[in-house]
């Protein structure tokens, strides 16, 4: 059962009926957002009943858009652990620090949430083939969920994505096109080819349902903390749909009467080699400008201009949050520190949040007694090429695997 009522444009508020296939708003080109009858949901759905549901993100099905249970394409995504990290906190000066570890999702990243929801809705609405531009992890997730749904998937990825992403997509049977360029170049190719080939474009925010899967990160966090939100959330921001989705979830939970008006400080974390949202925040701009020559070892953060930048910036400013950029060296150091203190091997994107937290504790933006949650969006095992550069290798010729040099 879903309480879905309609969709509406996030820019011009044009309403669209539910039950149809959409990409962007036809009136202004803005991203479409899903709306629910929250008054009816408040009367008929209690948060106390949620634990009776499945141990996946689909425990929140009434606040997700799928209307038919048989449409759901699930591989067990969601309900990832919220890990207390006291030793890391002690080193950085944070008394109550947690990592929400999304690496335990199918295909090893948070992208599973959004693609589970998007592919489920595509199945429900009669879509036959799917296409996506991706910096890597969304491609892996789409390939997996399309395979589970029995749908062809067409993947466009930069040629220098982590090897794990390419191999996963091929194993799942997707058609993969490697592109000499960035995710923006991949998106251009999908936009050019999808209409002629009958593919449905599931690019970030160019369809309305990936955000609904991502918002379950906010619902889960509230449930895991006893329906009390933390003081600050650190989120590694490429496309930024996780922040947009969580902010939407917080608004919906307040209308359901599950939480109050208090909100965490939403903290965008980017890298020095690609920081369009940080620059826009610092300049007081409503949206970002395209970041030229984007470069970083954290491929998921190499997004020159997020489509939903205006929504990200609104969440940050409304929450009293901020935006921080760190260097590649700082994020690699942060990833190793987390691994050595807490036994968590996280993606470079998540590791960037460790370096950002250290900066904000040092400059006094955050206090040591605040409850702080870092979102790790994926597994470090998917980025062995990036982390492998930190270690000296002897007799390198004897230990090569897929282009990755391994120590003996």
Report on this model:
- Helix content is about 35%, strand content about 15%.
- With about 400 residues, it is an alpha/beta fold.
- Helix 4 links the parallel strand 6 and strand 7.
- Helix 8 packs across helix 9.
- About 0% of the residues have low confidence.
Describe how the helices and strands are arranged.
Layout: E1 4-9, E2 15-17, E3 32-36, H1 38-44, E4 82-84, H2 86-92, E5 96-101, H3 111-125, E6 130-133, H4 137-149, E7 153-158, H5 163-171, E8 175-179, H6 183-197, E9 200-201, H7 210-214, H8 216-224, E10 232-236, H9 241-256, E11 265-271, H10 276-283, H11 309-318, E12 322-326, H12 328-342, H13 348-362, E13 371-376, H14 384-388, E14 400-401, E15 404-405
Parallel strand pairs: 5-13, 6-7, 6-9, 7-8, 10-11, 10-13, 11-12
Antiparallel strand pairs: 1-2, 1-3, 4-5, 14-15
Helix pairs in contact: 3-4, 4-5, 8-9, 12-13
């Amino acid at each position: 059962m879903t309480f879905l009522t309609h969709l509406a444009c996030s820019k011009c508020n044009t309403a669209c009926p539910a039950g149809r296939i959409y990409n962007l708003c036809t009136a202004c080109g803005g991203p479409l957002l899903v709306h629910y009858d929250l008054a009816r949901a408040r009367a008929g759905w209690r948060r106390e009943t949620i634990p009776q549901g499945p141990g996946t993100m689909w425990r929140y099905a009434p606040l997700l858009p799928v209307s038919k249970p048989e449409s759901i394409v699930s591989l067990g995504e969601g309900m990832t652990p919220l890990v207390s990290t006291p030793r890391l906190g002690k080193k950085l000066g944070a008394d109550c620090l947690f990592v929400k570890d999304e690496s335990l999702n199918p295909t090893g990243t948070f992208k599973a949430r959004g693609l589970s929801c998007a592919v489920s809705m595509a199945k429900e609405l009669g879509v036959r083939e799917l296409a996506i531009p991706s910096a890597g992890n969304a491609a892996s997730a789409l390939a997996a969920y399309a395979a589970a749904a029995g749908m062809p998937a067409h993947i466009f990825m930069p040629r220098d994505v982590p090897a794990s992403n390419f191999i996963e997509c091929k194993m799942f049977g997707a058609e993969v096109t490697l592109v000499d360029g960035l995710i923006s170049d991949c998106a251009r190719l999908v936009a050019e080819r999808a209409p002629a080939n009958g593919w449905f474009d599931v690019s970030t925010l160019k369809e309305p349902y990936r955000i609904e899967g991502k918002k379950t990160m906010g619902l889960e966090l509230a449930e895991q903390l006893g329906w009390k939100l933390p003081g600050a959330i650190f989120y590694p921001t490429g496309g930024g749909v996780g922040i947009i989705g969580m902010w939407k979830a917080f608004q919906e939970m307040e209308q359901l009467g599950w939480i109050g008006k208090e909100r965490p400080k939403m903290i965008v974390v980017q890298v020095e080699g690609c920081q369009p949202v940080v620059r826009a925040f610092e300049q007081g701009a409503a949206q970002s400008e395209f970041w030229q020559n984007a470069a970083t070892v954290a491929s998921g953060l190499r997004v020159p201009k997020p489509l939903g930048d205006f929504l990200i910036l609104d969440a940050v400013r409304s929450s009293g949050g901020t935006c921080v950029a760190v260097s590649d060296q700082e994020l690699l150091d942060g990833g190793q520190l987390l691994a050595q203190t807490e036994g968590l091997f996280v993606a470079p994107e998540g590791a960037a949040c460790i370096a950002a937290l250290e900066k904000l504790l040092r400059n006094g933006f955050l206090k040591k007694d605040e409850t702080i949650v870092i979102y790790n969006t994926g597994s470090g095992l998917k980025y062995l090429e990036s982390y492998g550069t930190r270690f000296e290798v002897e007799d390198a010729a004897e230990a090569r695997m897929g282009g990755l040099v391994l120590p003996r």
